[in-house]
Every structure is written in C-alpha cells, then in structure tokens.
C-alpha cells in the first residue's frame, strides 16, 4: 500500500512538474533525436540484459522488455 | 473426455484462453494490415559464461550462446509489423546430489527457441500495439500475448503508455526418477504504466511502474535441497507471487557530443524480496560515425522471507535458489557502435540507408563472497550486433 502511495506521489509530482515546464518546440528537438539520447537505443541488448538479470537475481521488470520463457540456467 | 484432476481442468482452461487471445490478435493484425515507413533489420549474438551455479555450491557454471533476429516492416504509413526470433544453446554442468538415488539432474546441453509477432498502428497522436510470442525448451514452454496503448500530448512533449500482458507456462521435469505429477502450470499477468517527458531540448525523463501477479508452480523441478540433518527433499516455492517495480530514468545530453543516462529501480514482492538498482551509462561520439559507451550498474537485494542458507526439516519451503538470497552485484562494461554506412557506400554496397555495427563486453559479479564462504558468481558477457535501416 505504501508503495502505491509513493508511486502516486511521484506521478503527481511528475505531472504537476510537467505542467509548469516550458514546452520544447519541434525545431528544438535535434539533440533529442540523436541515437545517444533515446531511452532504449538498443532494444535487443535491453532484452538480452533483462534475461540475464532475471535468471541471476530475484527482481525483474520495470524497464518494459516483454518476453516469455524460462531459460533458467 | 473426463477431466479427472484439477490440474487437467486448469490446463484446458489455460489452453482455451491462450488460443482465444492468439486468434483475436492475429485477426486484429490482418484487419489493420494495409503498406510504408521505415523498415529495420537487426541481428545480435551474445556469448555468456559464468563460473559457478546459483543453485548448488561448488558447482561449475553455465555457458550460453544466443542469437536474436528482429525485423520491423512497414506495411502502411501508419502500420508496421515486428517479427522476432531467438535461439539459445545452453551448456551447464550435469550434477548429482550424493546419496540420492533419484539424483538431481540438469541436461548438459539445452536449446531454447523463441519467436514473437507484433503489430504497431498509429492513430493521430496515439500508438496501439499488440502481439504474441512463444518460447520452447525441452522442459519449459511459454506462450504470451501483450497489448499497449500510448498517447502523446502537450505538443508531443509528454507520452503516457499503458501495457498489459499475459503469459502461460508449462513446466516439465527432467529429474531422474521423477515421481511427482508434471507438467505443472504457471500464469503471469502484468500491468505497466509509463510516462515520458521532455524536460529541456537536452533532457528527457521517464517514470514507470509495473505490477505483476504470478500463479502456479515456481520452483525448479530438478532442484534437490539437502537439509541440515543430511536428508534430501524437493525444492518448494510459494505458488503465488505479487511483484512491483518502479523505475525512473533521465537522459542528459552533454555539450561535447556526449550523453549520460541514469536510471533507478525499486522492486519488491510478496515473497519478501526488495531491491534497489542503479544504472549509469555514458555515451561519447569519438568520431561522427563511432560512439563509445561506458556502463556501470549496481544492484542490491534482500532475501526472500522463506530463504535459508542451511534449510532444516522445520522449513516448509526449502530452496537452494540463489536468486532468493541476500546479495549485491555489480556490472561494468564498454560498448562501441560504429555507423558503417559511408564505408559500405564506398565499397559499392547500398543495401541500406543506415548500417550499424556494435560490439560490447560486460563483466558481471555477485558480491557475497563472505556470506557464502566462497567468491561470488562472476560472468563475462560479449555481444556483437548488426542493424540496418532501409
């Protein structure tokens, strides 16, 4: 329950913060379009990493890499 | 046909529901199929090698070779299909637990094949995606479906995406002398919400939360636990698990053609595990067509409530799963991304508008040498990839 409250608070902060932000205009997006500024520049690498971590650690998820299967070794 | 056991009934229900989901998604894919945007092809090879088992102490580790192939094909200006295929060859040490006739066993060689088909469709400032996939191993089958809806607003500075997915797994046992009832089932339902926001022309941030429920068999059929009195028993885990993961990410561009990516994840679940993960990546253009990336990741988790280093007969859920213990880990590595489009054009190869080659090396290490009386697991990870945009 506490975690949900924390998430809600963070989301509220994010949204209220967004509302006060100056909008980035389309002609100001050159840097944001650079490959090194993408949130997930290499989805295959992200999927491979997520598989390694989820088969060696007790945590999983949160980064958006979907998939199935075990490959538990 | 008489369905005698609850397990059989559950499996039939599960097969019917996954078949229905597949038919619905395949039908939707055909309905919105119409042709043109950006086509991409990529292939990635990974070699993974570690030095010890996370299940049995003083046992050799695992080597795996994995190939992933992905193709994104635009079929209209607003619709694209995504196809993925992967194959793993896993080699692990076969072992036995002394003194047990029905010894624990893992195959020396295992193959895993996986594939998925997805469709993305843009409607105004919204993107709708749906897909399905499967994975096959000698002792583990998994089928899954997913759907997501993303909406941009605030002059495309804000994006909110909601994703739902469902997976159905069948678990088989390869344990020598198995007498329990297999296969067993597991169902995983996941709900994820993320919000991405451009903060300045040089800064972008994202926040997300993922909640999943897992119902069914979650232990490893071949794992045998040696109890403190010298006797042996099968591994047991709870059959329900609720998992939460919250992530925040920030990418900041730097004036010398570099960028830093920082992410933090807080995770907890109903088994009592909680963890903190911090990731840092630094990108730097060395030349206009060559990028260097350096990376560091730190991870720290607490043990599951039922985990014990030395299980006794009093433990109702005995386990040797090292993923459930208290430990930290770190990973550091380097990656090079080389845009070879100009070179390819000079050589007269004009197969694609953009061609990238990438190679990376990561070193992963678990830091719990003192608590387990031995060095923590160490792994080397090498990846080589080729990506083309048409």
Report on this model:
With 73 residues, chain A is mostly helical. Chain A has helices spanning 2-20, 43-56. Chain A is built from two helices and no strands. With 390 residues, chain B is mostly beta strands. Chain B has one domain: Porin. In chain B, 9% of the residues lie in helices and 56% in strands. Chain B has three helices and 18 strands. Chain B has helices spanning 6-31, 341-346, 369-372; strands at 40-50, 62-74, 79-92, 109-123, 126-136, 140-153, 158-171, 184-200, 203-216, 224-226, 232-234, 240-254, 258-269, 274-287, 290-301, 327-339, 354-366, 378-389. Chain B has a 16-stranded antiparallel beta barrel with strand order 1-2-3-4-5-6-7-8-9-12-13-14-15-16-17-18. Chain B has a two-stranded antiparallel ribbon with strand order 10-11. Chains A and B meet through helix 1 and helix 2 of A and strand 1, strand 2, strand 3, strand 4 and strand 5 of B.
In terms of quaternary structure, the protein is heterodimer
Name of the top-level CATH class of chain B: Mainly Beta
Number of helices of chain A: 2
- Taking Cα atoms only, what radius of gyration of chain B do you get, to the nearest Å? 23 Å
Strand order of the largest sheet of chain B: 1-2-3-4-5-6-7-8-9-12-13-14-15-16-17-18
Report the sheet-strand fraction of chain A. Answer: under 5%
Query: What number of structural domains do the residues of chain B give?
Result: 1
Q: From the coordinates shown, what is the CATH architecture of chain B?
A: Beta Barrel
Low-confidence stretches of chain A: none
> Helical residue percent of chain B?
under 10%
Q: Cα distance, first to last residue of chain B?
A: 53 Å
Number of helices of chain B: 3
CATH level 4 superfamily of chain B: monomeric porin ompg
Q: Major beta sheet of chain B, specifics?
A: 16 strands, antiparallel, barrel
Give the overall pLDDT of chain A as a whole number: 78
Largest interface: A-B, 51 and 99 residues
- In percent terms, what proportion of residues of chain B is strand? over 45%
Low-confidence regions of chain B: 28-37, 98-103
From the N-terminal CA to the C-terminal CA of chain A, the straight-line distance is 34 Å
């Amino acid at each position: 329950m506490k975690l949900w409250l924390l998430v809600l608070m963070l989301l509220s902060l994010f949204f209220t913060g967004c509302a006060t932000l100056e909008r980035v205009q389309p002609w100001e997006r050159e840097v944001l379009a650079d490959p090194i500024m993408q949130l997930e520049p290499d989805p295959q690498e992200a999927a491979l990493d997520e598989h390694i971590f989820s088969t060696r650690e007790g945590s999983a998820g949160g980064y958006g890499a979907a998939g199935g299967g075990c490959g538990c070794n | 046909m008489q369905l005698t056991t609850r397990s059989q009934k559950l499996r039939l229900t599960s097969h019917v529901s996954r078949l229905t989901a597949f038919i619905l998604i395949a039908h939707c894919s055909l309905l919105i199929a119409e042709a043109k945007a950006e086509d991409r092809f990529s292939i990635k090879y990974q070699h993974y090698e570690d030095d010890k088992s996370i299940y049995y102490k003083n046992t050799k580790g695992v080597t795996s070779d994995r190939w992933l192939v992905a193709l994104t094909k635009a079929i209209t200006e607003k619709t694209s299909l995504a196809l993925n295929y992967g194959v793993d060859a896993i080699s692990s040490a076969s072992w036995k637990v002394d003194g047990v006739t029905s010894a624990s066993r893992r195959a020396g060689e295992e193959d895993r094949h996986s594939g998925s088909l997805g469709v993305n469709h843009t409607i105004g400032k919204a993107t709708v995606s749906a897909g399905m996939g499967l994975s096959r191993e000698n002792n583990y089958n998994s089928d899954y479906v997913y759907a997501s809806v993303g909406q941009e607003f605030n002059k495309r500075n804000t994006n909110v995406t909601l994703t739902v997915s469902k997976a159905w797994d069948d678990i088989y046992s390869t344990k020598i002398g198995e007498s329990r009832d297999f296969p067993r089932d597991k169902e995983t339902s996941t709900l994820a919400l993320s919000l991405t926001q451009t903060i300045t022309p040089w800064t972008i941030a994202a926040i997300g939360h993922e909640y999943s429920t897992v119902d069914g068999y979650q232990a490893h059929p071949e794992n045998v636990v040696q109890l403190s009195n010298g006797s042996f028993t099968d591994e047991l885990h709870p059959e329900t698990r609720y998992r939460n993961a919250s992530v925040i990410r920030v990418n900041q561009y730097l004036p010398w053609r570099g960028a830093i990516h920082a992410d933090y994840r807080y995770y907890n679940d109903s088994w009592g595990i909680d963890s903190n993960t911090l990731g840092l990546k630094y990108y730097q253009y060395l030349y206009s067509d060559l990028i260097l990336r350096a990376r560091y990741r730190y991870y720290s988790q607490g043990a599951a409530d039922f985990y014990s280093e030395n299980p006794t007969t009093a433990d109702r859920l005995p386990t040797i799963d090292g993923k459930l213990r208290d430990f930290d880990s770190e990973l550091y590595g380097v990656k090079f991304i080389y845009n070879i489009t100009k070179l390819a054009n000079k050589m007269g190869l004009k197969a694609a508008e953009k061609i990238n080659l990438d190679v990376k090396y990561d070193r992963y290490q678990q830091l719990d040498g003192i608590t387990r009386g031995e060095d923590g697991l160490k792994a080397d990870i090498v990846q080589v990839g080729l990506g083309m945009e048409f």
